[in-house]
Amino acid sequence: MKKKVVATLLTAAMTMSMLAGCGSSDDSAPAATPAADNAPAEQEAAQEPASADDSEAAAETSGEAVTIKLFSNLPDRKNGQGLVEQKIIDEYMAENTNVTIEVEALDEEAYKTKFKAYAMDGMPDVVSIWGQPAFLDEVLDAGVLAELNEEDYLDYGFIAGSLEGFKKDDKLYGLPRNTDIMLFYYNQKMFEDNGWKVPATTDELLTLCADIQAAGLTPVAMDGGDGWPMACFLTDILVKVSGTSYADIISNAIATGDFTAPEIKQATQILVDFANAGMFQVGYDSQDYGTTMNLFTNGQAAMYCMGSWDASMALNEDIAPEIRDNIRAFTMPVVNGGKGGANDIAAWNGGGYAVSANSAVKEEAIKFLNYMYQPDKLSKYGWENGVGMSAQDQTAYLTGSETELQKQIMDILKNATSVSGTPINDCGPSAFKTAIESEIQGVSNGSTSVDDFLAAIGTACK
Amino acid sequence: MKKLYSNKPVIFSLVLPGLLVFLFAVLAPICLSVYYGFMDYSGMGKATPIGFDNYVNLFHDSAFGRSLRNSLLLAVGFICIQHPLAILVAAVLDKLQGKAEGIFRCIYFIPNVISVAVIAYLWKFIYNPDFGLLNNIAKAFGHPGKINWLSQQNAIWSVLIVLIWHGFGWGMLIYYTGIKNIDPVLYEAASIDGANWWTTFFRITLPLMKPVIQINVTMAVISALKQMETVYLLTNGGPNNSTQFAANYLYQQAFKAFKYGYGNAIGVVFIIICVLATVALNTIFRDKQEA
Predict the structure, then answer these.
(1) What residues make up the domain containing A443?
(2) Antiparallel, parallel or unpaired: β A167-168 and A178-187
């Protein structure tokens, strides 16, 4: 009897598990089937610039329940940019009660991996993207993003040139969210207490680092474990060495796979000299973002090299007020003999959003995208939350109560005589990006020579 | 019952689920990998056939070579450090008896119960040059501290220590079970004959543990080749690929560098190496058993 009961239970469990394995998800089936059946029609539609304003379909669906799936690279929904994104989503859902927005958020690396899986098997409706060749080239070649009508955005206040990275063959496929500037954040009080001054040249920077080291502190906290911040740092040096010819030098090097241009060589050598002088913390080449930032926000490092998106540190209540209130920033000092001036800066329009070409609710997704980019949304909320500079004109939203750091960053951008555009690691194909972000660790820590480094990244372009 | 088991439709229906799982979860992906290994494919859009180019590039790829060398180092570490220690500890535990035996068995197995993510971050903190445990211990002994345990030169050894430490519990538990299955009468007879602990260990325990050692060593070599999660979370193969392992490199190439075809070529070579390693180990052990 006992055996029979056990046998019956096992049979039932096996049947259930097989049924579960064979069953299809109710959520995915209706969305996937029409997309597959109507693939040619969808592709045709994707070729036409989509506009939310002239769409009857959007008007028809306005009363019906619509679910928009948003795939985001901002997993922290309570701070910084993630908070801004969530706030806009909540407002949109409150204003459009028939719309539900489901958010799936992963950090950058996991995001990019899953993005690729989605690209093969049906994308969510609205996605985060990067307007840089290393990410966007393959994505646009695969035709997974919907074309947007550039004329719809004429009065959205986008900064001149900021849409360029999101275009292919003069067609627009996404919108930029930020203007990112590479910065040295520093602790002003620590500087004043020790009589240190913001350096004007790289030689002064080296002297300053020696003074900071003598005081028993780390001069610059550098996230070398991830590779890309150091590549942005190299971009910053290269801008000071080559001035406005930065973009030409890099695009030529990537096209030919030859990185032996004297400017690139000199910039790399300066990076190596910085590292050899002990500018960065011990073990910088294996430490991650959080650990590095903590060195600065805990007061163990006098400076921290990162993009302007980290300006929200000045409003982060998890950071002690004596540090938080004293965070200031400066840009890379000039290189003696370099062509770049103090106001030639490393800045670019990186992250942004796009709509999936095969979205079942494409019109509604574009309506939401346009809502996010209304000047009083991403731009205004971003400014209020101190997440750095938007890719849109923000002057209307200055409140007078901005942090000193925000004002400084705004001035840096206002006074810029030239901006670099895409950082070096994002200028080439993704194989080049992977190679340079790994090889730069080797060249900076001295295990690879400058020539070998330049040869290795050149090979990755071919 | 006998009739039932000799009925061909019954045999077929019993074998079918396993066969289907093997076909669709193992064989089909391998075939797809072989197919994509001959393609220039980013993972999106169109794939272009490029013949053996991916394989040619692979054999000139120094990072892949380093990842195989690291796997070999790890396998040697497992076989020469982890397993001898595991056998010794298992033998000592067997002799402990009573409560202590259970307590120590649990303690040695704890690292295997903790998630790999926790282990990786735990060791990241232990190795940190600014506030890590190891440097603080070094400071307590008068060293100025700030040793970079994860530098280009040291990182591979630091990673090997974590991996050997983490896998120790499994090896020990399997050896411990093997030792428990040895007939105690043999030990009694040996002790009557005046054999000491070392003699019984080398003359009784080790020879009777040969099948267990064979399984454990094979599993260790395969797990050294397959190493991914801990390395991914601890160093992600860095600095500059110095702690790169084949599975992690495959992931980076396929999903970060958008070289899906190349990633599949790595996968195919990887499968061949794993199969060759298993066959070689089985041959070595079979020869010894026959001898």
Answers:
(1) 180-348+404-461
(2) unpaired
Q: Collapsing DSSP states into helix, strand and coil, what is residue B228? A: coil
For position A372, what pLDDT does the model report?
A: 94
Q: Token digits for B221? A: 């070599």
Preceding amide of B239 cis, omega within 30: yes
Residues A440 and A333 in one domain: yes
Residue of A nearest to B127 (CA): A283
**DSSP H or E run through B243:** none
d(CA A69, CA A104): 8
Which tens digits make up the pLDDT trace of B215-242?
889 889 989 998 999 999 999 998 999 9
Domains of chain B: 1-31 (no CATH), 67-257 (1.10.3720.10)
Q: Indicate the residue type of B3.
A: K
Sort out which chain A residues have CB atoms less than 8 A from B258's CB and list them: 116, 138, 429-431
Q: Higher pLDDT residue, A60 or A214?
A: A214
Tokens 């036409």, residue located: A48
Contacts for A206-210 with beta carbons within 8 Å, 24 or more apart? A206/A273, A206/A274, A206/A277, A206/A279, A209/A274, A209/A277, A209/A278, A209/A279, A210/A277
- A77/A221 same-domain check: no
pLDDT of residue A5: 52
Rounded to two decimals, what is the model's pTM? 0.81
Residue-averaged pLDDT of chain B: 90
Element (H, E) at B53: helix B53-59
Contact A431 B257 (CB under 8 A): yes
C-beta atoms of A116 and B44 within 8 A:
yes
Name the burial class of residue A328, with classes exposed (0-12), middle (13-18) and buried (19+) by CB atoms within 10 angstroms of its CB.
Answer: buried
Cα-based torsion angle of the residue sequence A202, A414, A351, A334 in order, rounded to the nearest 10 degrees: -10
What rounded mean pLDDT belongs to chain A? 85
Interchain contact, A434 vs B146, CB within 8 Å? no
Collect all residues of chain B within an 8 Å Cβ-Cβ radius of residue A142.
Answer: 42, 44-45
- Calculate mean pLDDT across residues B182-192: 91
CA distance B149 to chain A (A): 8
The whole-number pLDDT of residue B238 equals 84
Q: How far is A74 from chain B (nearest CA, A)?
A: 18
d(CA B117, CA A257): 38
Number of domains within chain A: 2
**Which domain CATH number covers A69?**
3.40.190.10
Nearest neighbour of B238 by CB, restricted to A141, A142, A286:
A286
